[in-house]
Amino acid sequence: MNRNSRVNRTRWWGAAALAASAAVLQACGGGGGSDEVTGTVRFALTDAPACYDAVNVTVQKVRIHRSSAAAESDAGWSEVVLATPKRINLVPLTNGVLEELGQATVPAGSYSQIRLVLAANDATAPLANSVQPIGGAEVPLDTPSAMQSGLKLQAHFEVEEGQVADFVLDFDACKSIVTRGNSGQYALKPVVTVLPRVSAAGLKVEGYVVPALGTGSTSVSLQLNGVVARATVPDATGKFILSPVPEGTYDLVVAADGRVTAVMTGVPVAAASVTTVNPATAAIDPAASTMRVASGAVSTTGSAAIPDATMRILQTLTGGPTIELGARPVDAVTGEYSFSVPLAAPVKTAYAAGATTLTFAADAAAAGKYTVEASVPDKPTQTADIDVTAADVATPFAFAP
After folding, report:
1. 192-196 and 382-387: which strand pairing?
2. 352 Cβ neighbours under 8 A, 6+ residues apart
3. Is the domain of 191 the same as that of 339?
4. Angle 374-349-215 from CA coordinates, rounded to 5°
5. Most-buried pick from 21, 141, 246, 393 (CB within 10 A)?
6. Residue 324, Cα to own-chain centre: how many angstroms?
7. What CATH number has the domain bearing residue 225?
């Protein structure tokens, strides 16, 4: 089951960038003389849980500009350029693993645009950008033509004089891959968010699921009002690390194929210390569950065009919270989507500092009940409540042209 994440953007600045090691990073552009006031931008890369064995992208450079309206050929761009394009597999970058991307000196000030420039697949590097489906063969990943001029992303961040603007770039690989019917082809639709990285002892949540859940099919996430703030895959020991996470109070959601969904409410995140939700001796071990399929297709009324739709599957527990169990784009050719969800009731417990045991209670009233959400840019979001108790459920959505 695809258990991807969305990012809570309440206080985070949106941006996107990928790069290589510090040794191959250099700053250029931006203009100005030797007396120019400058600061430093620094990036590290991480990834949300992915539903592929590998997702590779080859990065050439990242461009930043103060104006959100600046065109590719306008003056005033600063660039972080890789001496040699770097091919990066996004999938291993979970559970606290960061790919340090290096830093560059740029003019100090406010920035409002980032352009991510990827290398193109060509005869010399046909798999510069590629995807490997689970259990399948590696195939080329088509990138938008905009990638050669730079994919335009709106960003709002400050580079202060003599200071380092430090960010972790969260690339949601699963949400960024669009299938194309039965052709075996895949296209890249980048979904990347930037998280400010601060020098703090905390802003981190850690704990354990049983080692058997230490696989790519398991997602552990922190959510707020049904929106994923941070998600990861536990390691082989079952340990999970969610970092960095803005200060606040969240719901911890553990979702795994063939298991009921486990929810821990009221998990605090503070700057002063790490939050440990449970020790290895009290690892979270959700009971087995039959899985059902919630599927369907998204269409455009009166047209063969497939909307650029993103789907989510949600579940509301009795008394709250509402949680997200998956999110993905629809197939670009057919408009189809599919999620695998537990038939059995979710279980819930409340966070307790220093707890050495965990007791989860089943929420029988929520068993088999879900909400499917379809979002298309510039269109009202559509939702449908479904019940998979008796059987799999197919739910179509149609959007106006």
Report:
1. unpaired
2. none
3. no
4. 65
5. 141
6. 13
7. 2.60.40.10
Residue 218 lies in a domain: yes
Number of compact structural domains in the chain: 2
* CA distances from residue 24 to 27, 44, 80, 102 in whole angstroms, order as listed: 10, 14, 10, 8
Which of residues 155, 176, 196 is at a domain's end? 196
Q: What is the pLDDT of residue 148?
A: 66
Residue ranges, the chain, pLDDT below 70: 1-35, 145-148, 153-154, 198-200
Element (H, E) at 100: strand 99-107
Q: What are phi and psi of 200, to 5 degrees?
A: -140, 150
pTM for the model:
0.82
Calpha distance 192→324 (Å, rounded): 18
Let me know: does 88 contact 171? Beta carbons within 8 Å: no
6: amino acid identity, one letter: R
Structure tokens at 40: 């430093």
Beta-bridge partner residues of 108: none
- Which of 141, 162, 196 is at the close of a domain? 196
Asked, for residue 157, whether it belongs to a domain, the answer is: yes
CB burial readout 92-102, b (16+ within 10 A) else e: ebbbbebbebb
Question: Which domain, by its residues, includes 330?
Answer: 200-401
242 and 381 together in one domain = yes
- Give the model's pLDDT for residue 225: 95
Integer Cα distance of 255 and 117 in angstroms: 34
Residue 101 domain-assigned? yes
**Looking at the structure, do residues 357 and 235 belong to the same domain, yes or no?**
yes
**pLDDT of the residue at 35:** 67
pLDDT digits (tens, 9 = 90+) for 372-382: 999 999 999 99
Distances (CA, A) of 360 to 18, 71, 175: 40, 54, 30
